[in-house]
């Protein structure tokens, strides 16, 4: 998130690419899987506006109601309980930013604007932070390379990078306040600073080498409008807190809950891929096998990987399928493809095993 980690790719220098070449390199394109994925899911590409609106609005309202409950709770235990509910609900609401990058505005009219008003601006993650960035993660020639804003070879890096990767996310809300309350206004008067802010601090990315281009045309107009609104919100929040209108405890509770959503998302990101690519280009099957599905019967992924994120590998195979249809797409492919199909190779049982695999890989390859 917003250059969410300062971990450098050079941390993977201890890995031996020759002897530790990942198994993914041996995978050829599984054309049977690719053709089946396309033919079996053609009727699942349409977004259902009712589902989008109901799910998002319910998540956002629940999150903010629980936030106020945490602020005014009469005991620490009720505060913690309400805060936990708020974190999960606002995390789910915020996760719709991923859907915004894939659905067309005409498919769910007004949804982009509503999301920004109800989640993007209050949580200081307006949609321009992801739109125009996430699509590069899906480009076949960029996935897993130094040009991919959402990829780091974590499995090949030093063991300390895993906890550091998560801990840095906890500071995300502070970084966002600095970006919108301080850097954004200053950058209007200092052109060199503006370029730095746009290139380095205007994307929810994990690759510190990624540099974003300056926005143009309609993208620039939307960007500026959302950035101004978010800056006003951030400045207002700090001003009202400094003047005592918003109690410091309430402000810190908000920051804590926002931090919680970012930590969960960062943990989810840890297991969204196997992170075993050393920078070379990968074919479609290799990209799929480097990604992760955590399908049923596992139940907890519905909380830590909501809005279809539990089907991350399937999403890379079928990026046009909306989140609410990914479960059905998965069931069809599981039923149609033989056990020898590559499709089964990206399905995992749950979070603990994936984290253990990643940490074990860092100790083997990143020493």
Automatic annotation (TrEMBL):
| A Pfam family this chain is assigned to | FA_desaturase
Q: Source organism's superkingdom?
A: Bacteria
Q: Annotated region Disordered: where?
A: 1-23
Transmembrane intervals = 64-91, 111-130, 160-182
Q: Which UniProt keywords are listed?
A: Membrane, Transmembrane, Transmembrane helix
Please state every residue range assigned to the domain named Fatty acid desaturase: 77-340
Q: Which PANTHER family match?
A: DELTA(5) FATTY ACID DESATURASE C-RELATED, FATTY ACID DESATURASE 2
| Descriptive protein name | Fatty acid desaturase family protein
**What's the source species for this entry?**
Sphingorhabdus arenilitoris
Q: Taxonomic lineage per UniProt? A: Bacteria, Pseudomonadati, Pseudomonadota, Alphaproteobacteria, Sphingomonadales
